[in-house]
Amino acid sequence: MLLVNLSDTLVNGLQGIVKETKLDHIVVFFPSLNRQEFIKKHMFTVFSKRHQKDVACRLQIPVRLCYATTVHKAQGLTLDRVHVDCKKMYQSGQIAVALSRCKTKKGLRIINFSQKLLRKPNEDVLDFYKRIQAYPQRNLSCCRSVQIDDTKPEESPKQGNRNVSELQNDSDDDTEFDEEDDERMVSLLNVLDEVENISDFEYEIPETVQVENCLDAVKNKFTITENQQLENDAILELKKNSKTATFVKFIWNEFSKLKNSILKEGEKIENKTLSEFYHQVNEFITNDRYLLMEKLLFPNITREEKNVLFKICCHVRKQVLESYTVTFCKAATRETDIEKSFEESPAGRGKIRYIGGWCIGKLLKSKRSSIKKNLYKNACKKNIQSLSIELDLLQHLCEAEGVLFETLEEQVFV
Predict the structure, then answer these.
(1) Does the global pTM surpass 0.90?
(2) Which sign, positive or negative, has the C-alpha torsion 350, 351, 354, 356?
(3) In terms of DSSP H, where are the helices of 157-242?
(4) In angstroms, rounded to a whole number, what is the distance separating the alpha carbons of residues 255 and 261?
(5) Percent of the chain that is helix, strand, coil (3-state, to 5)
């Protein structure tokens, strides 16, 4: 296991297999990266707070023998196979972090698990979810701990000693705008024109994405926190507002444009294509065009209403993807509905017998395994009896199939 961060990919906690050793480096194969890397010696130092300097140093190859790792050490890693020992996991969230390291359920194994180990979340985590959600801003100011007030005017310098000509030159000075600002202003003017003629849309909205359905879908079913109650109250106000229908039609139209530009009709949806669609949608709901449209439709919008509109966007995005998948499934159904006839042949009969035998073999294995697990449980006697009957029927089916096959061969031979 690596002990330090050497690069963006060679990180602390990464596991590998040593393939070759040299005097000044080793060759390590990292399965998660699927490549070999040269690991050279690294300088480790010991810093003294008292003397405010390094008091010791050691030069060594930054790896150690690793049969297992702690949850803290594995935090942030993505692994194909994980064996989790839940013994002594008493911290809240510790088991969740360990289980989420694995990519698939198939590659995960858990031992020594008990429900007593599941602790309540920390109060700081609960407090975070109780806070009023901040709407995402394009400049990422919502992610900063300190908010900068851009509206506060700067203090102007004293002008007592300045003459009239200097003040006149300041007033004649024009503000310079770059090309990006010009394009932004033009786009905002286009949005204003679009709002005035917003009755016409390119894509017709289906009945399943009407205003009532969207608002009911995003409504909080259980109002545990004050924020959830305020959002439900905001949903009631938006139902009364006629502009909400226009907003839903506008979102459906824009998301449909993005869908048709990214997802090609008749093609399967890949993860890369789906991620690109999500990215474009997120870019849209944080750009100036969307924010201006929102401000023009809802001039006195509250924070709770902004949260509800954001949830409506997520719901409409889901409906747009579902409309694409429905079209794709209908096309596939039309292809499979066409009846096809195949000539009977020995090879075809052999394939059918092979598939049928494989299915019966799987069922036999499953029934026997269930009988072994419940054999010594008094409460499962009836289940064992029914499983035994099913097992006998399957075995009889195999024997009958063999007799029929031999009889068929004799008739063909005669």
Answers:
(1) no
(2) negative
(3) 164-172, 179-196, 211-218, 226-240
(4) 10
(5) 55, 10, 35
373/215 Cα distance (integer angstroms): 49
Q: How far apart, in Å, are the Cα atoms of 239 and each of 219, 235, 236?
A: 12, 6, 5
Chain-centre distance of CA 219, in angstroms? Answer: 22
Please check whether residue 314 is in contact with residue 284, taking contact to mean a CB–CB distance below 8 angstroms.
Answer: no
Task: Give mean pLDDT in consecutive 10-residue pieces for the chain, a chain of 414 residues.
Answer: 87 89 90 89 85 85 89 83 87 87 89 84 78 63 52 45 46 46 59 59 70 85 81 89 86 85 72 83 83 82 88 87 68 52 69 81 86 78 82 77 58 44
* CA pair distance 234, 309, nearest whole angstrom: 10
Residue 401 burial by Cβ neighbours in a 10 Å radius (0-12, 13-18, 19+): middle
Cα–Cα distance, 28 to 18 (Å, whole number)? 4
Helix (H) or strand (E) holding 53: strand 53-60
Q: Are 391 and 371 in contact (CB under 8 A)?
A: yes
Q: Are strands 25-30 and 17-21 parallel, antiparallel or unpaired?
A: antiparallel
Quick check: helix, strand or coil at residue 29?
strand
Six-digit token pair at 93?
């969230």
